[in-house]
Amino acid sequence: IRVVSNEPVFVDSMIQDPMIHRDGITMILVTVEDVEDSSQDLNLEFQYSVEEDSWEDAYLSEPLYEPGLDQWSVEFDPVLSAQTGFYEIRVRATDTDGTISDWHSPGSIQVINSPPEIIDSELLNHGEDPFSTFFYRNGTGSFFVYVSDSEDSPDQLAVTVSHRFMEEPWEQSFLEEGTYDFSESRWVFNFEIPSFAQEGEYDFRVLAEDLDGEQSQYLEIDNVLFVLNQPPVVLDAQASESLVNEGSSVTFTGESYDDSLVIEHEWSSDLQGIIGNEPSMTMDWLMHGVHNISYQVMDNDNIWSQSYS
């Protein structure tokens, strides 16, 4: 009669977290029994294989027996350069007689790419007060973004910044393409407030993408800056003649400036009231008397300039 040793038998197994990032760790737990030996006297061998490649154990810790739970555990800890994909796990046990069990499969672990992270952001005003969040049209500034990624260096990431006025759609109309500042370890986005920018508060939104195409969560920052309107200015106003006969022609010419757009002109006489609404006009119907002529303009924010006489 030939008596052979009974093989160890796996009765339960579990993978604590079946999906982890490259910089993550998960635990594999197995319960194994043997007729002749106690579980703690067995020798366990864990291996993994990714995409049906060869079996390895470099990312696995030494198996550890936990007496209170009567089970074995091992950590699966991939390196940052590990291949993404599904890692099939297998384990077998050898008893004190050298009898080896069949391979047992607790399941698979999916290793995924770690997304980049947006750490911080800063605003710099190129005007007199570098910390001011108020900008006039045509004013300039810089927006700094600090990012990190466990696999890629910050300068390898693709960082985009968008802005919006109030609750309007996101756009990038006044932000230049970002450049990486190695001396300060940050991304720099210079901008100039355009003449068509609306007066009010602007929100910013930041997104980072790594070399694997993994994207960070959007970082939305409310009220990053406030665009102020500059009132229009009358630069000059002239009459072709200072003394004319009643019924004779006289030409009035005005010159003005606005940071956006002048939409209305107004000439007025202290004797006849409003006499015209063009930047330049010729008339021959002024009444007899001494007229004090004034000129003012209004911009597209409905703000009037000071009157110029």
Automatic annotation (TrEMBL):
This is Cadherin domain-containing protein. It comes from marine metagenome.
